[in-house]
Amino acid sequence: MKGRNILAMAAAAALVFAPATTEAQQAGSIELGVVGGYTVFDDEVGIDNAPRIGGRAGFFILPNLSVELDVTYAEPELEDQPGWQGRTFISHELYQARLLYTAWLGDTERLGLLLGAGYSYDHFYRPRRVASRGGGPGGLLGFRFKLTDLFSLRAEATGYYVPEDDDAFIPRPSTFNLGAQAGLSVILRDRTETVVEQLPAPPPDTVTIEREVEPELPEGTPTQICLATGENVTVYITPQGDTLVGPRRVNVADLGPGVAFAGEYADGRDWFVNDEPVDFDDLEYVRSGGIIGLDCADIMQVGEFEGVPLFADAGAERPFETLYVPVRPGEWQAYQTDLAEVRGQDQQ
Questions:
Q1: Residues with Cβ within 8 Å of residue 159, at least 6 apart in sequence
Q2: Which CATH architecture has domain 6-188?
């Protein structure tokens, strides 16, 4: 066949030399293919219908959505022969750029409906006396049949409209050209293929019935402890002195270092270990007495020191004589200041 069809040969070579790492279409895949078809030209163009051949290239934005370009070549004969300079045919290239959607039919995803829309451009050349070059909207309707995850066949009907152009060197009337085309495509994707291994089904007629019997909760005496958050929680103390927590009454010793009560505590902090005073409201408070237990209803939070909350007696007013520091859950340390000395300084 006369003329230039390099693109068609390149697409055919891509099908032959496609790398072994190709796989089914998905986002990022590339489609290459060869196309053969037939164009039915509008009577206004002045040329006979003709076969065409070419290639296509596409890029998948989504698994079912791609952007592609078809380029085909034909040599339609002139209706009025001989033409300018004795020509009996002209050269015609058709460029079709479109957005293409594949709607798979059925669960196997072997047969898909193709819907495309975009822009088409007529390129006439060689000496001619037919309508000038031009372009306009085009569409595609067809089917894709997947032979393998690598190859697929496509059969499509196309159509494109080119508006009139009275200002061209050869005035062009509005035309609507139809066509049919089919081709073979390959999907290229440079990624490792994911292999899904299906496990065998379990043996039939096998019924397993299990019954869980809730164990009895361990015995313990309910006790309220006050946390650094200012809230009372209930724990259980066994006759052996173990502490049980939670709805299942789990031994704190069994939980190990992973258990944590809400709130921030002074135990292990340098200022507490070194018996340093607590500074609060421009007053200095020093440790007073030993570890005690408190009811959260009897105290209120008034501030914090080094990230540890400070509490005072509920209803007490500033300046406070005694502050309470949470050492561990349920254990508190009192700190006191000499208010008589402070008031004496205020009177001077």
A1: 138, 139, 176, 177, 178, 179
A2: Beta Barrel (2.40)
Which of 309, 51, 30 has its CA nearest to residue 187? 30
CA angle 26, 31, 37 (to 5 degrees): 135
Pairing of strands 151-162, 175-188: antiparallel
Domain residue extents for the chain: 6-188, 221-258, 270-347
Amino acid present at 68: E
The pTM (predicted TM-score) of the whole model is 0.47
70 versus 215: which is more confidently predicted? 70
Under a CB-based contact definition with an 8 Å cutoff, are residues 181 and 18 in contact? Answer: no
- Per-residue pLDDT tens digits for 213-254: 777 777 778 888 899 888 988 888 887 767 777 677 777 666
